Amino acid sequence: MAGTLEELFGLEDHGTDVRTEILAGITTFLTMSYIVVLNPAILTAFPDDNTPGGIAISGYGPGEIFQMLAVVTILSSAVAMFVMAFYANRPFGLAPGLGLNAFFAITVVGVLGVPWQTALAAIVVEGIIFIVLTAVGAREYIIKLFPEPVKFAVGAGIGLFLAIIGLQAMGIVVDDPATLVGTGQIASDPVAILSVVGLFLTFVLYAAGLRGSIIVGILLTTLVGALATFLGLVEPGVLATDAVRNGGFDASRLASAQYDITPLAGAFLTGFGNVEAFSFALIVFTFFFVDFFDTAGTLVGVGQAGGFLDENGDFPDIDKPLMADAVGTTVGGMLGTSTVTTFIESATGVEEGGRTGLTALVVAVLFLASLAVVPLASAIPLYASHIALVVVAVLMLRNVVDIQWDDFAHAVPAGLTIMVMPFTYSIAYGIAAGIISYPIVKTAQGEFDDVLVGQWILAAAFVLYFVVRTGGVLSSAL
Questions:
Q1: Is the separation of the CB atoms in 287 and 339 below 8 Å?
Q2: E strand or H helix at 248
Q3: pLDDT over 80 (residue 170)
Q4: What's the pLDDT score for residue 49?
Q5: Which tens digits make up the pLDDT trace of 311-370?
Q6: Backbone φ/ψ region at 53: left (φ over 0), alpha (ψ -120 to 50), beta
Q7: CA geometry: angle at 184 spanning 181 and 187, to 5°?
Q8: Chain centroid to CA 112: how far?
Q9: Per UniProt, which keywords does this protein have (predicted)?
Q10: For residue 144, how far is the Cα from the chain centroid?
Q11: Positive or negative CA dihedral for 386, 388, 391, 392?
């Protein structure tokens, strides 16, 4: 079996082995499995919630819709990762993207009042456009237009993005009305206390050269949380799933999944009956733009961390992983979920040594295995799995050494790319800042001839996107 896998994925050629790839796949799964619960939580319409929008289906309660969406999340993710594994042979995990699902549920369905079926139709159209553009090489061409400093800055920007996501989940960074962000109650919050201990334990294991240190750190932190709950030191649900009780385990708190997804699957077809051409085009444009550059940024940034980029900072054969993303988005929309994209958590598996599609295959299989009992996908607490994000964030910051900081035309776009990503919670916005600033600064330095026409067009496209997205154009058109 091992020999077949080595030959199928070319493990020896990529300097890896079956054990390393499986370990990397488990690591990536542990860090992104939260999406199985979080995506349905965002997309489901809860009548008692003050948040507008979401998917509501007549005759079904929020709990049933939540479980349908969990199943759809798993299936669409698995399809995308099978394409990534066998077609692209790259170690990236894919699933419905955060931010895009919130835009789908809250902005498009809630604020703008677009039927959720029509929003799904926009997702399917976006996916088909992606498939066509990827097949003809247009997406790869556009990504190659990224200025060199932006390509080299994306990894560090994603690192800071990962860090703020991880630190927030761990209770170390919290909201602050005065300063936007602040320090959590590290000495009194059980989640923050255990997270800090787990984080430094993982750092120690990694520094000691232990293979699988990130997985070990996540699992040990999870076990300590479960033990503290079992012994009654904290309330159930704080450090472990509600199923773990003081002195026991309550299996009744693990609800069974709703596997009948027929109310969601194919609903996009009815969505085309509610289409107004201009407004529908704006929605597709917005989904398209964010997904395109989120995916591009993730592939380039994680690719840099994994040593996949060539001497020019380009990702060879990037059209193949892009096709996995395009197929995932199309299938996801058809099944009933928002845009599928490549996850930045893939960096955790790459850091563990994942280099081929076998890593993606392992993640896909684990996603499908979680179908057995959907709620168990969240058995690893968010704070524990996100320790991996902070560890990887620290490691990804080393990418800044590739940037020519003494050249202002490199320093400005690189610096903006790195800063804007975490502060706006968007990979696409960080890339936009870098791409818009590059031709401007280059021209100011008297190096107009060094800027490609395509780079000016790309910068102009981003300006147009910001006008549509933040200038009220979308809301006024609907």
A1: yes
A2: strand 248-249
A3: yes
A4: 58
A5: 877 888 999 999 999 999 999 999 999 999 999 889 889 989 999 999 999 999 999 998
A6: left
A7: 160
A8: 25
A9: Cell membrane, Membrane, Transmembrane, Transmembrane helix, Transport
A10: 22
A11: negative
Exposure of 55 by Cβ count < 10 A (0-12 exposed, 13-18 middle, 19+ buried)?
A: buried
Model confidence pLDDT, tens digit, residues 185-223: 999 999 999 999 999 999 999 899 776 788 788 889 989
Phi, psi of 384 (to 5 degrees): -75, -45
- Using alpha carbons, select from 52, 478, 130, 96 the residue that is nearest to residue 274: 478
Q: How far apart are CA 192 and CA 456, in angstroms?
A: 46
Check if the beta carbon of residue 372 is closer than 8 Å to that of residue 364. Answer: no
CA gyration radius for the chain? 22
CA nearest to 191, candidates 224, 231, 217: 224
**CA distance to 5, 133, 321, 359, per residue, from 89 (Å):** 12, 20, 8, 9
Separation of alpha carbons 324 and 302, rounded Å: 16
Give me the pLDDT at residue 251, please: 58
Structure tokens at 383: 């704070």
* Cα distances (Å, whole numbers) of residue 426 to 79, 146, 285, 394: 25, 17, 17, 19
- Quick one: tokens of 440? 């401007």
Residue 395 gets which letter from DSSP? H
pLDDT of residue 105: 85
Closest CA to 100 of 155, 43, 41: 43
Inter-residue contact 54 to 109 (CB < 8 Å): yes
Q: Which two tokens stand for residue 20?
A: 């390393």
The secondary element (H helix, E strand) that includes residue 176 is strand 173-176
Residue 55 Ramachandran class (φ > 0 left, ψ -120 to 50 alpha, else beta) = beta
In which residue are the tokens 């959720």 written? 116
DSSP 454: H
Strand partners, 440: none
Q: Show the tokens assigned to 106.
A: 């809250």
pLDDT at 151 over 90: no
Contact 343, 112 (CB under 8 A): no
Which residues, 6+ apart, have CB-to-CB distance to 255 below 8 Å? 63, 67, 374, 375
Q: Residue 49 contacts by C-beta under 8 Å, 6 or more apart in sequence?
A: none
- pLDDT of 238 over the 80 cut: yes
Asked if 302 contacts 158 with a C-beta cutoff of 8 angstroms, the reply is yes
What tokens were used for 360? Answer: 């993606």
